[in-house]
Write a structure and sequence with these properties.
four-stranded parallel β-sheet; alpha/beta; 13 strands; three-stranded mixed β-sheet
């Protein structure tokens, strides 16, 4: 354990450039040193993770950092307090923790300072309210590092045997490949089921027949092979006082047609029927785009969508066109 014989405080940052600026702002009561990034890591030879005992890692001082560590230890012996001012992300938190472990200054005299800008005001404010090392961030970084080592050291050799030497397996890309493979197997194992839909277009303009104009409008365009967009369809319908609908129930039973014969039979019965709107519900809704996927949630979402094979094999009956309704049509 370090013994202090001075009231001076030691501040450790990662970058030498930051050290010089911060030392200028803090004054003569502080000595600012730089760790030059990480100082400890898992040794490169061997796994160095105890898989049988809670994945306990073994750390060593990194090659080339022994001189830096010796300088920091010498400075710590002459100081009363230790301020760890490494970066504010989980890597910076882990560096602060490793420094605290190596220097051995008592916890009650070890402080963590965080700032977003290298300005006099930001620096002085951070040092006026120092905190403690965030152990949750430390464990997050350690978990990432342990996973990197376990996946890399145990899967990479398999790639060398099966594919080619020099390839590496990462904790993110390996899982992503597994998800892709599982998804492709689901797609190939999917058994398509035939089903038919009966869509229709209704209009309150009882003096016009829009069946042929609607078919002409929705037909694929020759220049791009695609029909109108959702926005274009909506505008056409609004201009013609019309709306789209789809057969959902027949009586109390949900509509279901597994083949063309069933669908066409019901379609013919509906083609000349009279329709009315039974109820109108008006409500406001807010639609927000989903946030981008991150690796921690990507896997949990992969089974939520319909297999694309189903979508590609779905079949629909011919649309009823613009079916004219009675004067009692309500939306």
């Amino acid at each position: 354990m370090a013994k202090s014989n001075s009231h001076k405080s030691l501040v450790i940052v990662e970058s030498p450039a930051k050290a010089k600026t911060i030392n200028h702002y803090l004054g003569p009561d502080f000595e600012v040193k730089a760790s030059m990034g990480h100082i400890r890591d898992l040794p490169s030879k061997g796994l160095n993770i105890d898989l049988e005992h809670n994945f306990e890692p073994t750390y060593d001082i990194m090659p080339g950092k022994k001189a830096v560590v010796s300088q920091l230890k010498a400075a710590a012996k002459k100081c009363d307090k230790l301020f760890l001012a490494t970066d504010l992300d989980r890597e910076g938190e882990a560096i602060a923790w490793h420094l605290a472990q190596i220097l051995g200054i008592p916890e009650d005299r070890t402080y963590r300072v965080i700032f977003n800008a290298i300005t006099k005001t930001a620096i002085q404010e951070a040092f006026s309210q120092p905190g403690r090392i965030n152990q949750d961030k430390v464990m997050a970084q350690q978990a990432r590092r342990v996973l990197d080592r376990i996946v890399g050291y145990q899967i990479s050799p398999l790639l060398w045997k099966k594919v080619t030497r020099g390839l590496s397996a990462g904790r993110v890309q390996s899982v992503a490949v597994k998800i892709v493979v599982e998804r492709e197997r689901e797609i190939r194992a999917f058994k398509p089921q035939e089903y038919w839909l009966i869509p229709a277009v209704f209009t309150t303009d009882l003096n016009s027949n829009y069946q042929q104009p609607w078919h002409d409008f929705t037909a694929p365009k020759t220049d791009n092979g695609k029909g109108p967009t959702v926005e274009e369809r909506g505008k056409w319908l609004a201009d013609h006082h019309a709306f789209e609908a789809e057969l959902f129930k027949i009586g109390d039973a949900k509509f279901k047609a597994d083949n063309q014969q069933e669908a066409e039979k019901i379609f013919r019965e509906l083609e000349h029927a009279q329709f009315k709107v039974g109820d109108i519900e008006t409500k406001e809704s807010v639609s927000r785009a989903s946030p981008p996927f991150i690796s921690s949630i990507l896997g949990s979402c992969r089974r939520s969508s319909v297999p694309r094979s189903m979508l590609s094999r779905a079949r629909a009956a011919p649309a009823a066109g613009a079916i004219r309704g009675s004067d009692s049509i309500r939306a």
